Amino acid sequence: MTTKIIRLSKSCIGPEEVSAVSSVLNDEFLGMGPRVKVFEQALSNFFGVGVSCVSSGTAAVQLALQASSVGEGDEVLVPSLTYVATFQAITALGAIPVPCDVDESWLTLCPKSLNKSLTKKTKAVIPVYYSGGIHNIDEIINFSKENNLHYIADAAHAFGSSEKKELIGSGYGVSCFSFDGIKNITSGEGGCIVTQDKKILDRVNDLRLLGVMGDSSRRFSGERQWALEVKEQGWRYHMSDIMAAIGIEQLKKFNKLKEKRQALAKYYASLLINMGDKITFAAHDYDDVVPHIFVVRIKGMQNRENIRDKLKERGIQTGIHYYPNHRLEYFKGFLRFELPVTDKVYDELLTLPLHPDISFEDVKFIVDSLLEFIAG
Ligand SMILES: *Cc1c(COP(=O)(O)O)cnc(C)c1O
After folding, report:
1. Secondary structure percentages of the chain, helix, strand, coil, to 5
2. pTM to 2 decimal places
3. Which of 120 and 223 is assigned the larger pLDDT?
């Protein structure tokens, strides 16, 4: 008997996406054109504010920073517990990522750590909506308002989530989403910047097309601009019509994808709630949060690799989100303070499989196996 593999995460693609991509190929117009415009409009309706689509979530963060005039030597407060993408987006602009600590409850940016890290050079704060939510959002927003900082959310995990009953992206600041293959919705690769601030969006629209002014609207009308003006460093970070075609179909089925993710996370939580403080997890309200990952913290775990190997033998893939950035060669020089919570929780983190194609029986099997292996 071959073991069934339960993947940690995966793209969930149906015939709709396949035929949408075929139709782009048949049209023989693959670049940024009418489909990107349609996807942007659909996202804009979804969020109720302006949207600019780009080639990745990383590009979204970088362009959101640049459009906010964050650059060379400016300091950006960011949790160390995030994907390297957030850090690389900052250093790409010559700005300085200042690694901050997280709050133990949801593993998101800790307001106390922000206060400690503030200097005259601080220009922006990037909270990461880890696993789909953000704790203390009001404190973090107030902190950035009081200190005149740009609030740029890395909301790569949080597409469709609400915080305090407000859809993430619709509210304060600039929010950056990722549509990479395994996120809550995908466009293959891709991402977007969402904000009420029209100036930021206009600047992003130029920056994503090598800084060529006004090029976005030309491409949407199927034209090409021959007389150009460029006033600053731009990047080739636009989205293609192939990507947008996938994204449009994913957005149409988002309610289904969302409900399944929420139901699976609720089921995980119901099975694990009796573990007391042996196994803990963020107490998200899964009627609001659309979880991208399901992370548990196993108190005092010393044999994580051993547990992961045993789970793997049963076909269960697991992950670790994330190896802290302040321990990486390229970023460790940016560390200003110890990050005791990040360092403590890192060894206890384990991410369990979560994606819309997992069944409730799978979740039961995963939890039973985990409990068996933890017991020894
Ligand atoms: C996925 C992800 C990103 C980057 O998105 P890409 O589309 O892969 O570039 C950034 N931050 C976090 C926390 C992510 O999970």
Report:
1. 40, 15, 45
2. 0.98
3. 120
In whole angstroms, give the CA distance from residue 257 to residue 303: 34
CA–centroid distance, residue 374 to ligand 1 (Å): 30
Measured CA to CA, the distance from residue 85 to residue 249 in angstroms comes to 26
Which ligand 1 atom is the nearest neighbour of the CA of 179? 7
User: Ligand 1 centroid to 2 CA: how many Å?
Assistant: 33
Q: For the chain, where are the alpha helices, taking DSSP H only?
A: 15-27, 34-47, 57-67, 84-91, 111-117, 137-146, 198-207, 215-220, 241-252, 254-272, 304-313, 340-346, 360-375
Model confidence pLDDT, tens digit, residues 301-357:
989 999 999 999 999 999 999 999 999 999 999 999 999 999 999 999 999 999 999
Pocket of ligand 1 (CB under 6 A): 56-58, 82-83, 85-86, 128, 154, 156-157, 178, 180, 191
Q: For residue 292, which atom of ligand 1 is closest to its CA?
A: 15
Ligand 1 pocket test, pick from 56, 128, 178, 243 with the greatest ligand atom count within 8 Å of Cβ, gives: 178
CA of 85 to the centre of ligand 1 (A): 6
At 43-66, the pLDDT tens digits run 999 999 999 999 999 999 999 999
**Distance between CA atoms of 152 and 137, rounded to whole angstroms?**
12
Spatial distance between the Cα atoms of 78 and 81, rounded to a whole number of angstroms: 9
Strand 75-79 relative to strand 122-125: parallel, antiparallel, unpaired? parallel
What is the rounded end-to-end Cα distance, in angstroms, of the chain?
26
Predicted local confidence at residue 375, as pLDDT: 86
